[in-house]
Amino acid sequence: MTVSMSGTSRRSKPETADSMSARQKEISVSEFFAKNRHLLGFDNPRKALLTTVKEAVDNSLDACEEAGILPNVTVVIEDLQPDRPANSKQSRYRITIVDNGPGIVRKQIENVFGRLLFGSKFHRLKMSRGQQGIGISAAGMYGLITTGKPMVIFSRPHSRKVAHHIELAMNTKTNRAEVTVDEETEDFPPRSRLYSINSGTRSPEFLNAEDYMTGTSVSIELEGRYQKGRGSVDEFLELTAIANPHARITFVPPTRISADEQEDLPFTYNGNGAARIQPASDREDQPGSRSAGHNNGGLSDIDPNITTVEKDGIIYYPRGIDQLPPETREIQPHPRGIELGILLQMAKDFEAENRGGGTLYNFLQEKFSRVSPSKAGEFCKVVGGHSRTKVSDLSPQQFEKLFREFQESKLPAPPTDCLAPIGIRQLQSGLLKGVKAEFYTAETREPAVYRGRPFLVEAAIAYGGELPADQPARVIRFANRVPLLFQQSACSSFKACGETSWRNYNLSQPRGGLPNGPLVIMIHLASVWVPFTSESKEAIADYDEIRKEMKLALMVCGRKLGTYLRKRQKMQREAARRDVFERYIGEVSKAINAIAGHDTKKLYDCLLAEARRRTAIADAQLDEEGKTIKKDEHEDLKNDDTVVLVESRAVHLQDQTDEADDESADDGQEMVKLSSGSRRRKASGKSGRSRDRDVE
């Protein structure tokens, strides 16, 4: 049988190694990320808008803190297409971020904003928000791709000199910036263009020149979507203000909003969607809850009237404290935290710096942390050398032996002055002002190490109040003071919350899930190098050491919550018991009067006082750690008609319990207690304080 070959295409000439190699070419990193922008957090229009704001705000806060300046950051989002159709999925926005930092010198502007992976923070071991040097330049690249508009930058490094006005666009083929405008200007901060946005921007207080003597302003036009709710710019700025109480943030939102999803946020929002911190005067007094006049257990110095407000179309996140975070210092790598290849490269760099004359002893002392002089001498002997052995004389086998010795040696943990935790007080105050709950507690763990890099975990929880009781707990995640809003299920913080046994603390919890109830959990990881799961920095990688520390911090907070809940349940039971007493006291008094002729009112008052004394725990107040707050000893007794104070000090009846009836008086104290027989009893003369029972 024959087969006709008509209509079939001939096989093309086969490829050879020479022809294939001729088509190969090198691509720049910016060209790669331009085609894979989802890796940087530009998955969709809404997320792209948030990522742009996030990267710019992070850079502003880092710059201000390094320069020792209290940050003033202004974020402006302009909707350039307010007349778009109602069913439009996205719009064109201009995002402008202005800060009062040290500014950027002219010769570095193209590198900072026009090149990917150009940054001074990549190699240093010091806590900072930015790490890779990708964020703000990637945002400019995304804006150029979607709108074709260059970045507009104003920088003023010196208060007595003019500012630089630069407009540039990134060439993704070369990973270099192409400058289109380069001039000097007096317009800093750039109010002239922002003046006419709304009535608030026309106010003299907006971008006041005295608050922005130096600094940087960057504007990016892009295709995006502004929408409130979870994962929004509003939520990011609110959480940033909580984790950075030393910063003052001003936010000008666009005039048109795509949709309103504010109902699922844990914070209190006003009618316009702006976050509002509830003053203490708005909180209702409830038994066992944090109320007005309640001792805040160490938070009394916090001003409850510092609120996030909206005025004339501008949202203000005021500064909570006038103190910068502790200054961090750069550290050297720890021997336990490097790989063999990195050790070899460090040795080559050291050899090049010293032109082949550097010794192994000096290499160990200068390039590593926690290597003492005696330990450096021991390492030199391990590889068969001495303190004067040159690095260039070591063979690869000797370096491998040195590397194994690093892993087996007992060395002190890395120094921790490179970290700046938020702090227990700031965590509690942030939750206190942002979440309407009744119980707050926080914990800061001691620094630990993963891969030779120091890190520190902080946790805080808020319970009860107006939080939804029929939903799983809300988890708020931070890494180096930056909120993480996406990829929650892939984050080590979320997994630590699910693995914590919340049933031990009187909370319901499905297997492997979050606890159910009115609970907000906040976790912060501070590290010199946060192990993010991707370049978009949205989730923390699941290292065993990190997850363990997170669980331990949550367990400490959980134990305090469990104590609080058990005491509150005790208070509720005693309150119900008192109701039963009070229901029948009147009938009992009348019956005794009919039988014995005693005064009904005196009997009723004495029985009522006895019922209140035996159920005194129902009137107790608990602090944020679940501990009973001791009132002024005179407070309750002064208004009690059944008690006469004979001496200047009296017994605090509410600290007594059923079993401690006769053991609650100090030396020299005496009281007269009226009963049906007007019996006078002298308090026992035991020395020491009244016994307080910790009711479980």
Summed over residues and divided by their number, the pLDDT gives a mean of: 78
Tell me the number of structural domains.
Answer: 4
Largest sheet: 9 strands, mixed
CATH topology of the largest domain: Heat Shock Protein 90
How would the global form be characterised? globular
Q: Termini distance? A: 95 Å
Strand content: 15-25%
Radius of gyration: 33 Å
Mind telling me the CATH class of the largest domain?
A: Alpha Beta
The CATH level-2 architecture of the largest domain is identified as 2-Layer Sandwich
Query: Approximately how much helix is present in the residues?
Result: 25-40%
Widest beta sheet: strand line-up: 5-4-3-6-2-1-7-9-8
Unreliable runs, pLDDT <50, ≥5 residues? 259-304, 632-638, 640-696
Task: Give the class from helix and strand content and strand pairing.
Answer: alpha+beta
Tell me the name of the CATH homologous superfamily of the largest domain. Answer: Histidine kinase-like ATPase, C-terminal domain
Tally of contiguous helical segments: 16
Q: List how many beta strands DSSP finds.
A: 17
Short summary of the structure?
Helices cover 30% and strands 16% of the residues. It is built from 16 helices and 17 strands. The chain has helices at 17-23, 29-35, 45-66, 109-114, 135-147, 191-194, 233-243, 340-353, 360-367, 373-382, 396-408, 424-434, 492-499, 544-596, 600-614, 633-637; strands spanning 72-79, 91-99, 151-156, 163-171, 176-185, 215-224, 248-252, 309-311, 314-317, 439-444, 448-450, 453-463, 474-479, 482-484, 519-527, 643-645, 671-673.
